[in-house]
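Please review this one.

:::
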Amino acid sequence: MGHNIQSGFLVSEAFQLANQNRQLELSSIVRYTTVSFSNMIGPVEQVEFCGHPVVFIAPSGYGPPEALTLNFQSYVNTMMVNLAVDEAQFPDVHDLLEDFVESLKLIRGAASNLVEKHRND
């Protein structure tokens, strides 16, 4: 009986140690992540919440503090963009925003041209 109790205690300690290591590993993954990406799209049709139509979803970001956080969220033919900037790292936030808007216009134009070219082929 004494060996079973000791074995159970050792197994319990091993699981606890493994769990702590997993938590440290996940914590370091999140802490040192430069880019994370998900291709999950939002609903293409309007949804209801408690019988009320959802007409707007406010995007937000959550996570460890970063110099730049960018979040895209799609909902019913609309793409919302959330840009969070550390002003200590980017002193001229307005220039960054203007560059970002220009880049999005260029990307949208290139994607539209690609679609048109594909339709014509």
Summary: The CA atoms of residues 3 and 9 lie 10 Å apart. Residues 1-32 form one domain. The first helix runs from residue 2 to 31. The two ends are 78 Å apart (CA to CA).
